[in-house]
Write a structure and sequence with these properties.
This protein is an alpha+beta fold. About 40% of the residues lie in helices and about 20% in strands. The longest helix has about 30 residues.
């Protein structure tokens, strides 16, 4: 037998080791050679949590190793966590020495309410991470407060309230029957009114927590947030107290007229229920408009007769919503009967009438003193504290004066004597034979920030991006008012708007002003106006009929089958039509006489609240379903633009047609405590896209500052035609610098402002506040720097006063000249 030396042993051992690795290699793919990592997450009041994760610096895990239910979004893994014994948990199979990177997404809070809260292990730490060496359990405890995006309201407890008060009054009836059956007194009118006032006040107090966003805090920690509830309801208390004292005075004056007294009692109960319903509706109104509904909003909505107003109401007020309000009112009436019965019992059984009255007076006086201090400490916005009924009545006050800006004395150096500037650019000389047609596509409720050439993170405008090489993008263009019909006058007539909450189209549709349609009609153009919405709004159709348009169409006479509305899930044919069909109607009109120069304006509709889109909804990078719906509508508008451009190319009209894409005003989604568009004058309300498309432009950008009034003169400049001497605007091609652009909004507060350079000035003439923003460093207007620039406040007011007074004089003359 041969001896085996050491070298041979080493070779054999090495061979054995290699063979064992090869033979065992498949085993590494089995769970027996993996480790288990469990993540447990403790967070109070959450009811649904997703683990958002990756491995080894956020790389994706192999599909067969992902926990059940995991899905991928934007390269991240989303795994639903199981809730057991108050802890959310999920388990992984990973290879040893794997780093697990993760954060938590809380999607539902208390009472299974929707939320959108991210626990990302805030600085100084960044994200959660765990290195797994062997089987391991990691426990994370979070102190984040979980609250619903939507406030709790009385409607969330409508049935519970009805059941509770019904049970209580049943118990009271039983007790009274067996314990106090000898007391059969009829309640006095004063007792009924006081009892109704108590119920109304309690309801309004809880409603106020919903408006301030503390309803969930009060629901979960009532004792801690009870003072907040008390202070927040101060103005509701004053309203109810004033109403109660007024009716008690009526009872005293008519104490010898029983029927009149009964009428006052019933009328007080009716007003109480109206006030309660107004308070409930005010929750959503303040969310949308930033303050309670007023007479100016009523006018703006065409006294609730417009299709837009009906669509907005139907999207916010469903049948179940109305039913819940009705149930709350029934519960309030039953609760009132219960309190009346209890008060009567205390009055007659225990003779506590004088004691209760004295105690009530002292409690009210003490509350008034303490509440003022509580409000001042919290620094709440008055618009979120104001009683809606009182606010509406106050807004129709006929003795209320216009803001001081309308009559203030002005420095001579700031007085405006002329606004319009007839200068034009020589750039387009010799191109008049090349560009002879114009299509203006007005994007309803579309701010610049949601359009890709302006840096939007949402991919909503691929068609515009496709044609950007043949475009010039104007970066600093503004609507002068966040309102459609006022913007219509600005765009067509190149004049600043009437400084009023009333509308020129509504009050003076026959006003004698030249418009781009009438000016081009003089030059032999055929003209048309297409609106996917309804021209009836604020008599817009009557205004357009006097602007020399050959063809005017809207949703009522467009040859379109698909109509959009928001009445539950039914379509109302008078609301609006699919923009894609309107675009096709426009192109059919163009192709009827393609050899004759044309001017056509199309106004889109689907991006107007409550937002309509066609086809399957795409999920954008947002957790807000309303914003996502809106972005789908914006993308549909872009599709319409793409189809118009394609048809122009097919019919050899692209090179001879100037396409102008412009917004009529912006749209807000929660920034600055507002949604939709008309209530404020921040960038999201006014900064609009403005893109000119034609092969003469070569992927250009312009920093020229301007507004809606500058669109018509700029178009005339490109066409090589003179602009009207009466127009306020000027061509955006005359240079990159403009002095300033003005704007205002009169429907919530009286707001006036202007932009000059990078500075944005806003003056609230209702409360006297002034805001100044540096848009270069703060484009979303988050930091008011007025404290750093006190010397500019008075100059700001003077500039605004000069503009307002000049504009009012101009409009007065134009209105008076309408019949000439």
């Amino acid at each position: 037998m041969k001896k085996i030396n050491c070298r041979s042993l080493i070779l054999l051992a090495s061979l054995f080791f290699k063979c064992s690795i090869v033979l065992s290699e498949p085993l590494f793919n089995h769970n027996s050679l993996m480790v288990t990592q469990e993540i447990r997450y403790s967070i109070k009041d959450a009811s649904e949590v997703f683990l958002v994760w990756g491995i080894n610096n956020w790389q994706s895990q192999e599909e067969n190793l992902r926990p059940s239910g995991t899905y991928v979004k934007d390269g991240l893994l989303y795994t639903p966590m199981k809730l057991e014994d108050g802890l959310f948990s999920t388990k992984f199979k990973v290879k040893p020495n794997t780093q697990l990177d993760y954060v938590f997404w809380i999607t539902k809070g208390p009472r299974n309410s929707s939320t959108d809260i991210w626990d990302i292990n805030n600085p100084p730490k960044k994200d959660y991470w765990t290195i797994t060496l062997n089987d391991n359990v990691t426990i994370i405890e979070s102190n984040i407060k979980v609250r619903s995006k939507e406030p709790l309201t009385l409607l969330d407890f409508s049935w519970q309230l009805l059941i509770i008060v019904t049970a209580l009054i049943f118990v009271f009836i039983v007790i009274k029957k067996y314990r106090f059956k000898d007391i059969q007194n009829k309640p006095s009118a004063r007792t009924i009114i006081l009892s109704a006032a108590i119920i109304l006040l309690l309801g309004l107090f809880f409603i106020r927590t919903s408006i301030l966003g503390i309803s969930w805090d009060f629901y979960l920690q009532p004792l801690e947030f009870m003072p907040d509830l008390m202070w927040a309801g101060f103005y509701d208390f004053l309203y109810v107290a004033a109403l109660t004292l007024l009716f008690l005075a009526f009872l005293f004056l008519f104490q010898n007229f029983p029927k009149v007294k009964s009428a006052f009692v019933y009328f007080f109960i009716f007003l109480g229920l109206i006030s309660l319903v107004s308070g409930i509706l005010n929750i959503r109104i303040v969310q949308m408009l930033g303050k309670p509904f007023n007479y100016r909003w009523l006018y703006y909505s065409d006294f609730l007769h417009s299709a837009d107003a009906k669509a907005a109401m139907s999207s916010n007020i469903s049948l179940s919503y109305i039913m819940n309000i009705f149930i709350v009112c029934i519960a309030a009436v039953i609760a009132g009967i219960l309190i009346i019965s209890v008060i009567e019992l205390l009055k007659h059984k225990y003779k506590l009438q004088k004691i209760l009255l004295t105690l009530l007076i002292f409690l009210n006086l003490g509350y008034i003193i303490l509440a003022q201090k509580g409000i001042n400490e919290h620094k709440w916005n008055y618009n979120k504290l104001a009683n809606p009924v009182f606010s509406f009545v106050e807004s129709v006050n006929p003795f209320k004066q216009d803001p001081e800006l309308f009559t203030m004395e002005l420095a001579d150096s700031l007085k405006m004597v002329k606004i319009n500037d007839s200068k034009t650019s020589d750039r387009f000389k010799g191109l008049s034979n090349k560009i002879k047609n114009v299509i203006v596509l007005v994007l309803e409720s579309t701010p610049a920030e949601y359009i890709e050439p302006y840096g939007s993170k949402f991919k909503t405008s691929p068609e515009l991006e496709k044609n950007i090489s043949n475009s010039i993008v104007f970066e600093n263009i503004y609507a002068h008012v966040p309102s459609t019909n006022k913007s219509m006058v600005c765009l067509l007539g190149s004049i600043y708007p009437w400084i009023s909450y009333t509308s020129i189209t509504q009050e003076h549709p026959e006003i004698n002003i030249p418009t781009i349609s009438s000016e081009l009609k003089k030059q032999g153009y055929r003209t048309a106006f297409f609106n996917s919405g309804d021209n009836h709004f604020q008599r817009g159709g009557e205004f357009l009929a006097l602007r020399k348009f050959d063809t005017i169409k809207d949703c009522r006479n467009l040859n379109c089958i698909q109509k959009f509305g928001m009445n539950e899930k039914e379509f109302d044919p008078l609301d609006g039509t699919n923009d894609e069909c309107t675009g096709q109607e426009l192109m059919n009109w163009v192709k009827n006489e393609p050899d004759k120069p044309f001017f056509a304006m199309m106004w889109t509709y689907q991006t107007h609240y409550p937002y309509y889109f066609a086809g399957q909804e795409k999920q954008f990078d947002t957790s807000d379903p309303i914003l996502n719906r809106y972005l789908n509508a914006v993308k549909h508008s872009d599709l319409v633009l793409g189809k118009i451009i394609e048809e122009l190319k097919v019919n050899d009209l692209f090179e001879s047609t100037l396409i102008v894409v412009v917004g009529d005003h912006g749209e807000a989604f929660g920034r600055h405590d507002q949604t939709t568009h008309s209530s404020k004058i921040y960038e999201e309300n006014l900064h609009i896209p403005c893109v000119f498309i034609n092969p003469i432009f070569q992927k250009e950008r312009s920093e020229a500052m301007g507004g809606s009034i500058d669109i018509a003169p700029t178009i005339m400049n490109v066409l090589g035609l003179p602009a009207s001497d009466q127009w306020h605007g000027k061509s955006l091609f005359t240079g990159t610098k403009n002095d300033r652009v003005y704007f205002f909004a009169p429907w919530a507060d009286y707001l006036f402002g202007y932009r000059e350079g990078d500075r944005k000035y806003i003056y609230n003439a209702t409360n006297g506040d002034t805001e100044i923003y540096d848009l270069n460093t703060d484009p979303q207007e988050t930091k008011n720097i007025v404290g750093d620039l006190p010397e500019q406040v008075q100059r700001c007011h003077q500039r605004l006063g000069a503009w307002i007074q000049y504009q009012n004089k101009f409009m007065e003359e134009a209105i008076n000249a309408r019949g000439n």
